[in-house]
What we know:
The complex is a heterodimer. Chain A has 6 helices and no strands. By secondary structure, chain A is mainly α.
Amino acid sequence: MKREFSLGSFLLVATAGGFGFVVFLSYVVPGIGAVQAALVDWAVIVGTMSLVFLGGLNVLAVHWHKIRHLEKGWVYSLFLWLGFGIMLGAGFVEGPDGELISLVFKHVQFPLQATIFSLLAFFLATAAYRAFRVRSAESLAFLLVAIIVLLGQIPPSWGIDALTKTLPWVGEWILSVMSLGGARGILLGVALGTIVVGLRLLMGIDRPYAD
Amino acid sequence: MIEPDVLGMESVIAILIVLISLPLLFYAHARARVGRLPRLRPLPAFDLLSGMSGRAAESGQVLHVGLGTGGISGPDMAVSLAGLTALEHLADQAAACEASLVVTVADPTLLPAAQEVMRRAYAGRGKSDVFSPSQVRLLAPDPTAYAAGVMGILEGENPLANVTIGAFGDEYLLIGETGVKRDLQQVAGTDDPAALAFMHLTAQETLIGEEIFAAGAYLSGAPSSVAGVMVQDWWRYLVVAFILAGVLWHALL
């Protein structure tokens, strides 16, 4: 579909593309590092303001809607509003390093985060169980490679010289050649994709910021 | 932040890549606009995505789209934009059949971008009144807290499907396993090899690495998106040729 010309879109594309090229050039051309630093600072400020206003307001709005309509789990939303209010009040009264704020972070926020993250171990076990069920040639290969790598990690106490020397070597080879090669292939593809996406944005071919 | 390598070897390579890519991009774009499109290899993940909003509408269930922990002002910009491209298609389909769509983000800079994509999709279908900005939710900037928020949506809002395309790390496993437990249709894609392993284990279809950047080409068929895929492919052939030449050089000389 051919885009119709509009001055607003043109200005947006010119501004975004121009700033993008200045930042890119600052990595390769001397003398414009200060301009780049200023632009990056602006981006940081805009990002922070968006967290405080856009993000904060969005969270409050979504949970207010739940409380107002007494949707399932509205009590948790009420807790969020209470928590938000208490922390905001404490921040205004005590400052960002206040005692109450530190206390909540240390005894509520961090333990909760650690608890959720620790669930990963159990989730990993169920995912591994599903992956290791032999249903196809692919899952059989997956299982064999996993067994070899796992056995290769175990300290050499096999009593059989050939296995003691061979399995760690094979495990290491799988990790450092096959696995690393595959990961690098993915990363190369991602890098090429990122370059093309960046150029399309700078040239205004893609305009996620304008109609 | 990356230390600038002003006028060093890396700068020369960067300039060369840009100088070569620009004409290639224009050439590919011109070719795509006159209909000389390449044959795109089948990617089942995009086939599954195509009818997802319709299935959600038929079943009366929610479709969840997670755009990950990246934003549009950092190193995860490209992968986050790929997620937005997939969202563009899903939102358009959801607007057409009035499916219930919930979008989650972790980075506040991605929030207005996702809201804008949704607003445009609903406006394009003449259903601006149906769209609510609160369909796009910022859960939490922390990856673990974001994953916990998504788990809550998957457990509590009775979704039919879970689409997660964007920047994800180890925390994805919490989301993916919850989806498996709820027997959801799952499509996942990211650029992090570690998270990709988890996605492969939990999702029906996975978009691996650069495949996420082909979302526009597969889902909308727009010439600009197809041109991007063409340039990516040409670069890939060049990189493979360089690697092979390097291996031969190293082995023979």
